[in-house]
UniProtKB/TrEMBL annotation:
It comes from the Bacteria. This is histidine kinase. Residues 119-176 form the CHASE domain. It catalyses: ATP + protein L-histidine = ADP + protein N-phospho-L-histidine. The chain crosses the membrane at residues 20-41, 265-287. Residues 375-427 form the PAC domain. One of its GO terms (molecular function) is phosphorelay sensor kinase activity. InterPro entries: CHASE_dom, HATPase_C_sf, HATPase_dom, His_kinase_dom, HisK_dim/P_dom, HisK_dim/P_sf, PAC, PAS. SMART domains: CHASE, HATPase_c, HisKA, PAC. Residues 440-666 form the Histidine kinase domain.
Length: 683
């Protein structure tokens, strides 16, 4: 027998002992593994719980950011409005109207103010806030108020004071921004925001959701949601706001351990099974692998959500195989399913706008031949419905050992909104420049007309009373006609001045029927030959207390809006009449006696979603090069300043009707149906 051979008698004890030995070793290893796994899994579950809480807090954090940004935008709108005013007199004349229009589009805007050297010089609403005029903020007894004013006067950025208790009651934010220094102008604009409205709009869930959420300001003071205890160890999300950050904090109502208790109990049961039955080790290993795969899948899904939220997708190009692939987000950006976009590079080039295809192809080939590792391209793609979309393509080139391009990959994103915002900003600048130029030309032309009219009147008066049918009588008749033409030309310049907003507000008892008839020639020239205009003024329509130039602006804005809604030929009807409680009117119309201006068109109409926002400042559905989003906001501001109401009725494909209700005046110049809280104005 060789030295390495074993007899059956020698092997038997080892065979009998081996299961116990390896069983003991396996149990010891299993117990150690189970204990280590339990400790690791407890930390893992807490991490997952914190990730889940962070994810659950995300929509609330986004809603808070949106709510604050929406309200800060009103301050920026007020800032731009004041900066654009040509004179202090013009600013004083239009501040209340513009401020009312801005505040009406946002919940929680308590007050809009103009401040000069720390002193409040104008405030909206004026009613109930008269005592605020002349108030010196630098001497306010609350230390954070003068500190905020001084910081705002020393920086070009937005400064936020608060949340603090407001003199008007409640809790609010004081948001300020410095103006460009101009002699005689305010140096600050300020907006007072209602903090509870911001918290309410963010929709912070209560404890019934399983989470405690609270909001703290940059100083760590609580001002919304549940109050968390010091030992809650909450998760936090930073809420960027101008002049500092807020913090949204959240923790499970039952605590972190209880939040993940069911999962941990299941893991311990699995660990006990591993220790008792070694055969389950393989199954547990498979379970662990599956959980790891789930984590990878979950992360991949979150990445997909993030890409969709950012309107981005991924792509990859195998240069050697000439095959380009997209993910679902990338395919959605070019408006096609995956099956239609994956394939040769040439297929993608067929989706590019014909005017951009040659440029993109030339640049892309140059990049592949160069040694550039990265590149960025912006161009248009054609969607299946024939519309176009701007996309931003960012790529990275992988090269072989000889420097040749072998693969390219990157992201593709929708750039249409950004380009639309840039175009709208450029358009608003052009509109403002044209309005200023039109006002200047109208002023100069009006001066020339005044001089010409004076000379014609002198020539007419110099002729005296010539004999009928004489040559001098004919000359006098010609001079009279020249004066009539000059008078009509003055009316045109007045309308141009009103359109350019160059005239101060001067409300008075006005005959809107006369004003509307005087505007009719201008409106017909504005509409051209393709649109039929029908203007009807009912007999006996009473007067209205309003600035006629502002009424002219209201009509112009409504007619231009109606014109732009009509594609091809159509018609616009303008009706002016007295309306009483017994007559037919929209369901939301005010009761009582009013003067009704109705502008109805046969255009494409509006959806319910658009109608809800139609009077918001800077909201528009027009193309990039048309419309500033201010026309209907100005209409609402003028109507409310006159104590009236504005309603809109529309249906897609059935046209639109605007109803403007203005308080009627009686024979003594008093309002027949003044709005609640508005004093009766008399002529």
């Amino acid at each position: 027998m060789s030295a390495t051979a074993e007899s059956p008698s020698a092997r038997t004890p080892l065979t009998r002992r081996a299961p116990w030995r390896w069983g003991g070793v396996a149990m010891a290893v299993g117990l150690a593994a189970a204990l280590a796994f339990d400790a690791w899994y407890g930390r893992h579950l807490e991490m997952e719980a914190r990730v889940a809480v962070q994810r659950a807090m995300g929509p609330t954090a986004a809603a808070l950011r949106t709510a604050v940004a929406h309200r800060v935008a009103q301050l920026n709108g007020l800032h731009s409005f004041v900066e654009s005013q040509p004179s202090r007199a013009r600013l004083d004349a239009t501040f209340q109207t513009f401020a009312g229009g801005v505040a009406s589009s946002t919940q929680g805007v308590r007050t809009l103010q103009l401040v000069e050297d720390g002193v409040i010089v104008a405030t909206w609403p004026l009613a109930g806030n008269e005592r605020a005029l002349g108030y010196n903020l630098l001497r306010d007894s609350r230390p954070e108020v003068p500190d905020g004013v001084r910081r705002a006067m020393a920086t070009d950025s937005i400064v936020i004071t608060g949340p603090i208790a407001l003199v008007q009651g409640g809790e609010g934010l004081l948001v300020r921004r410095r103006l460009t220094p101009r002699p005689g102008f305010p140096d600050l604009v300020a907006v007072i925001l209602d903090v509870p409205s911001i918290v309410l709009e963010a929709g912070i869930p209560n404890a019934a959701s399983g989470l405690h959420l609270e909001v703290r300001d940059r100083a760590g003071h609580w001002f919304g949601g549940d109050t968390l205890s010091a030992d809650a160890t909450p998760e936090s999300i930073r809420i960027p706001v101008p002049d500092g950050d807020w913090t949204l904090r959240g923790a499970p109502v039952a605590g972190w351990a209880a939040y993940s208790a069911p999962q941990r109990l299941a893991a311990r049961a699995a660990g006990a099974a591993v220790v008792i039955a070694l055969a389950l080790l393989g199954a547990l290993f498979g379970l662990r692998q599956a959980r790891m795969q789930d984590a990878i899948t979950s992360r991949t899904a979150r990445l997909g959500v993030a890409l969709r939220a950012g309107r981005m997708g991924t792509w990859e190009l195998d240069v050697l195989a000439d095959r380009m692939t997209f993910d679902e987000n990338g395919a959605a950006i070019v408006g096609r399913p995956l099956a239609e976009v994956d394939g040769p590079l040439e297929k993608f080039f067929h989706m590019i706008h014909p005017e951009d295809a040659a440029f993109v192809a030339r640049v892309f080939l140059e990049i592949l031949k160069s040694d550039r590792p990265e590149y960025t391209l912006e161009h248009r793609v054609l969607l299946p419905d024939g519309s176009e979309r701007w996309v931003l393509v960012i790529g990275e080139i992988e090269r072989g050992s000889q420097g040749q391009a072998v693969r390219a990959h990157g992201i593709i994103s929708d750039a249409s909104d950004r380009r639309a915002i840039e175009a709208r900003a450029r358009h608003m600048e052009r509109v403002e420049t044209i309005g200023t130029m039109a006002g200047g030309v109208a002023h100069d032309f009006n001066n020339l007309l005044t001089a010409m009219t004076s000379f014609v009147e002198l020539a007419r008066d110099g002729l005296g009373s010539p004999e009928p049918n004489s040559s001098l009588a004919m000359v006098r008749d010609d001079l009279e006609e020249a004066l009539k033409v000059s008078s009509r030309a003055k009316g045109l310049t007045a309308q141009l001045l009103a359109f350019s907003r160059g005239a101060a507000s001067e409300p008075r008892a006005a005959d809107l029927g006369t004003t509307l008839h005087e505007m009719e020639p201008l409106l017909r020239r504005l509409l051209g030959q393709r649109i039929t205009l029908d203007v009807q003024v009912a007999a006996g329509t009473p007067g209205v207390w309003i600035d006629p130039s502002q009424f002219t602006q209201v009509v112009l804005n409504l007619v231009v809006n109606a014109r732009d809604a009509i594609q091809g030929r159509g018609d616009i009807a303008i009706r002016l009449r007295r309306i009483q409680s017994s007559e037919d009117r929209p369901a939301r119309a005010p009761t009582g006696e009013w003067v009704l201006l109705q502008v109805r068109d046969s255009g494409r109409g509006m959806s319910p979603e658009v109608m809800q926002r139609v009077f918001e400042p800077y909201f528009t559905t027009k193309e990039e090069s048309r419309g500033t989003g201010l026309g209907l906001a100005v209409v609402m501001g003028v109507v409310r300043a006159a104590g009236g109401h504005a309603l809109v009725e529309s249906e897609v494909g059935r046209g639109t009707a605007f109803w403007i209700f203005l308080p009627a005046l009686d024979a003594q110049g008093r309002r027949v149906s003044p709005p609640a809280g508005t004093p009766t104005r008399t002529a």
